[in-house]
Amino acid sequence: MKILALDTTSGACSVALHCDGHTSEQFVRAERDHTRRILPMIDQVLGEAGVSLSQLDALAVGRGPGSFTGLRIAISCTQGLAFAADKPVLPVSSLAALAAGVRREQPHWDAAPIVAALDARMQQVYWGVYTADAPNASLWPEAVQDPQQMAQRLAQSSLPTPVYGAGAGWHYPELAQVPVAEVLVEAEIHARDIAELALPLWQSGAAVAAEDLEPLYLRDEVAWQKRQKIRSK
């Protein structure tokens, strides 16, 4: 099984190749430099493995939520490659990938729930809750909320303890009192974790055609819902 994975949903830019059980990755922190870096990184990862686009089974990409600009870069690059090679695409939640990466790097967190949170700017947070049993799906729908709303939701929850936190969204002071055992604010999204999460999606038949690939912004969805409510009054 050969899957090429891309991610530019945040300040980092990463490319990974899962090739028959082995995963290699290129990762750089490249704020505002994704466009220049992504294609050379793809060439390097494929070249080092001796794999061509035509030999891939599928491409995987961090579908969001995340930076609007970063998501457009990753989605458009993935679509272009998938069209060129006539390959399907596996969209992976960027929040799920963040949680999976932290679980990989922090084995002592074991199977505990991880609250992955990205800074959505404008005093809001993208977040979801992930377990080892279902790493691709948040226990609650992924959301964009004010930090205070997120804190209240977690304080009122009945999640099994301990609970851990990961991601830059945790920097807001309102989240300091949330009952979590440990928080890694510096945690980042890695394409290698997108590739690993793509494997069960492939097995379950979740691949989509390149033309059907769409980013998940969340904030756009919230704005649309608000407009619909206003129009219905």
Structure description:
One of its GO terms (biological process) is tRNA threonylcarbamoyladenosine modification. It is found in: Cytoplasm. It holds the Pfam family TsaD. With 233 residues, the protein is α/β, with parallel strands linked by helices. It has two domains: 2-93 and 189-232, 2-Layer Sandwich (Nucleotidyltransferase, domain 5), CATH 3.30.420.40; 95-184, Nucleotidyltransferase, domain 5 (2-Layer Sandwich). The protein is built from six helices and ten strands; from the N terminus they run βββαβαβαβββαββαα. It has helices spanning 34-49, 68-85, 94-105, 147-155, 191-203, 219-232; strands at residues 2-7, 12-19, 22-29, 58-64, 89-93, 114-121, 124-130, 143-145, 164-166, 182-184. Strands 3-2-1-4-5 form a five-stranded mixed β-sheet, with helices on both faces. The chain has a five-stranded mixed β-sheet with strand order 8-7-6-9-10. β6 (114-121) and β7 (124-130) form a beta hairpin. It is globular and about 50 Å long. The N and C termini lie far apart (52 Å). The model is unreliable at 221-233 (pLDDT under 50).
Short description:
With 233 residues, the protein is of the alpha/beta class.
